[in-house]
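User: Predict the complex.
Assistant: Input components as received:
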Amino acid sequence: NAGVTQTPKFQVLKTGQSMTLQCAQDMNHNSMYWYRQDPGMGLRLIYYSASEGTTDKGEVPNGYNVSRLNKREFSLRLESAAPSQTSVYFCASSEELSGTGAYEQYFGPGTRLTVT
Amino acid sequence: AQSVTQLDSQVPVFEEAPVELRCNYSSSVSVYLFWYVQYPNQGLQLLLKYLSGSTLVESINGFEAEFNKSQTSFHLRKPSVHISDTAEYFCAVTGNPSGAGSYQLTFGKGTKLSVIP
């Protein structure tokens, strides 16, 4: 049981280049999320997918697109990278804590992206 | 809308001393509260959570947090810290469990705990 996996671990892009960050979970969770983490800013939600076939914008969606490929996989795409997108990106998935209506999130190890 | 305030961005403490990391939240609805820990160059791991019942919750490695509804706080404490506790700690809140968005978490900006030998 690998949990949440992300690829790649590190990436350097030049301004204007595009790339896709991959995320997969093997816990059969319905909900998946993409966050970015910047120093002193905590985690900010970029996009989320409450269930397979649905995606919604989070707090900071500009410059990103997502695809919920199937229940396991949720990718994040940068169409034209900018230096402001230099960050650490985390994928997460969640399940409902039985009978509570609360959701516990499980995080991947992160992708460190630098845009020059 | 919900928000989480972690009052200290950095907390240095000597090994074996007690520590308190403060968290206050703002919400107009019932909440569930979480503390996550991030060790250097790793992802976030759940440390403990408050859902209902006893307002004092504990983790397996000696941390505890107390939900105080009147003060809208969920402070994290440990009576004696170890070097291995050096990490960044994030407080998070989720909203009305019967409403839309209950699966979303709002995070604080984090508190870096540095344990000094």
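DSSP finds no helices and twelve strands in chain B.
Let me know if you want any component modeled separately.
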